[in-house]
Specification:
- With 466 residues, the chain is of the alpha/beta class.
- The chain has a single domain, classed as TIM Barrel, CATH 3.20.20.
- Helices cover 41% and strands 16% of the residues.
- It contains 15 helices and 17 strands.
- It has an eight-stranded parallel barrel with strand order 2-3-4-5-6-8-13-14, surrounded by six helices.
- Strand 13, helix 14 and strand 14 form a beta-alpha-beta unit.
- Helix 3 runs parallel beside helix 5 and helix 13 runs parallel beside helix 14.
- The longest helix is centred in the middle third of the chain and has 24 residues.
- It binds 6-O-phosphono-beta-D-glucopyranose.
- It holds the Pfam family Glyco_hydro_1.
- Its EC number is 3.2.1.85.
- Keywords: Glycosidase, Hydrolase.
């Protein structure tokens, strides 16, 4: 039995494009996903979970199930359909209504400004590879800070590393480019600059509330004790974790991070160039982040690999079909005896504990941590409204237990947001990979609490992990 703090947030997470639907309603502008998904012809993001029309019902469910926090994102293209310039009043009003409804219910809201959905007009000009779009993002953020003073917790970006790699390494996000390490590195860097500039603007203008960033941090372990595997895990970690945390908390990249980047670049015929002035922004923002949001679903065991790039994304839930081999970094392997989901995501709760302890040690200027996403994608079965999702409950219990251990060991963790509040659309997996506490019938949009929703309610009420 483990206890969580009295003032802990037991939340549920969503994102605009995955939950709202209504992609062509209310004056919303296009995002690259609209055309990318149409071209692929696998699935569309409409109606998703129709949060655009059903947010009162979803927030009511939060209240009924003891959920005292929600993570949602503003769709940039609802506010500025073209990314900048003309404002769309209907979009602006929509988020006022959502925020009011949540406030009336006493639900804390964490608002993300960018969750994978750059407006298409800006995306087509190079997304964050184009530095003009850093300015556009900062202007959009400023507009939101002034328009929504009621927001207590702002997040600049959701998951910079998956954006860069899914767009330019795996090719599963638009524009669908594979194995371009130069683009990956420049996208990571430019988005960190956009984050840093936004934090500096927020603090220098004295806006109310807190601001932070959400990073996807998946712990890396060597597949064996061999020096080659230890080095491969170091390289994978450097690109996916150290790079982002150094830029967030150290005012720039450490020597080890840059050495790793150079090695990765040499193996991939890639290069990078970081303008000097960016480091002035990093230096100013390094102690200004009020919190770090961590999305953590899995860990990776990494083996040395020097063959050709070979990544296959398991987007169907056929266990064993995923593979990840990157030249000059490593191969992420399936470790014998460890459990993984049907989408090949390794279940390894120790990874969360190790990650938190490392942040406490290596980045002691972090102020607070929220687990902003954790959860289990699962093919739920619907039996006359009864959804028994025991594997998901086991997953959450184990990860929350690791979290409680980290708190006991002195890490300042203040909340947990389960991905996802209700079933939502999954970017590269569509609708059969479900994560929600509430089952959504995507035909009728009816919501049904799963067994995990009742379990989570009890957890939120007792603050005790049994
Ligand atoms: C995170 C994202 O990467 O993982 C979410 O922030 C996403 O938007 C979630 O849905 C789960 O990923 P997936 O691919 O299983 O839907």
């Amino acid at each position: 039995m483990k206890k969580l703090p009295e003032d802990f947030i037991f939340g549920g997470a969503t994102a605009a494009y995955q939950a709202e639907g209504a992609t062509r309603e209310g004056g919303k502008g296009l995002v690259a996903w609209d055309t990318f998904l149409k071209e692929q012809g696998r699935f569309l993001a409409d109606p998703a979970s129709d949060f655009y029309h059903r947010y009162p019902e979803d927030l009511k469910l939060c209240s009924m199930f003891g959920i005292n926090g929600i993570r949602l994102s503003i769709a940039w293209s609802r506010i500025f359909p073209e990314g900048k310039g003309k404002v769309n009043p209907e979009g602006v009003e929509f988020y006022h209504k959502v925020l009011k409804e949540a406030k009336d219910r006493g639900i804390k809201v964490f608002v993300t400004l960018h969750h994978f959905d750059t407006p298409k007009a800006l995306f087509d000009q190079g997304d964050f590879l184009n530095r003009d779009n850093i300015d556009a993002f900062v202007d959009y953020a400023k507009f939101c800070f002034e328009e929504y003073p009621e927001v207590e917790y702002w997040t600049t970006f959701n998951e910079i590393y998956p954006i860069a790699t899914n767009q330019y390494l795996l090719g599963i996000f638009p524009p669908g480019i594979k194995y371009d390490l130069s683009k990956v590195i420049m996208c990571l860097h430019n988005m960190m600059v956009a984050h840093s500039r936004t934090v500096n603007l927020f603090k220098e203008n004295g806006y109310s509330g807190q601001i932070g960033v959400v990073h996807s941090l998946e712990t890396k372990y060597p597949a064996s004790d061999s020096p080659e595997d230890i080095h491969a895990a170091f390289l994978d970690d450097a690109l996916s974790i150290r790079f982002l945390l150094d830029a967030t908390y150290k005012g720039g990249y450490s020597k080890e991070t840059l050495e790793a980047l150079d090695e990765i670049c040499a193996a991939n015929n890639a290069s990078y160039e970081f303008p000097e002035e960016d480091f002035i922004e990093f230096e100013k923002s390094k102690d200004r982040n009020d919190y770090l949001g961590i999305n953590h679903y899995q860990s990776h065991f990494v083996k040395a690999y020097n063959g050709e790039n070979a990544i296959h994304h398991n987007g169907t839930g056929d266990k064993g079909t995923g593979s990840y081999k990157v030249k000059g970094i490593g191969e992420r392997i399936y470790k014998e005896g460890l459990e993984r989901t049907d989408w090949d995501w390794l279940i390894y709760p120790e990874g969360l504990y190790d990650l938190m302890m490392r942040i406490k040690k290596d980045y002691p200027n972090y102020k607070a941590i929220y687990i902003t996403e954790n959860g289990m994608g699962y093919k739920d079965t619907f039996d006359h409204g009864i959804i028994m999702d025991k594997p998901r409950i086991d997953y959450i219990r184990k990860y929350m237990s690791s979290l409680a251990d980290a708190i006991d060991a002195g890490v300042n963790v203040k909340g947990y947001f389960l991905w996802s509040l209700m079933d939502v659309f999954s970017w590269s997996n569509g609708y059969n990979k479900r994560y929600g506490l509430f089952f959504v019938d995507f035909e009728t949009q009816e919501r049904y609490p799963k067994e995990s929703a009742y379990w989570y309610k009890q957890l939120a009420e007792t603050k005790t992990i049994l």
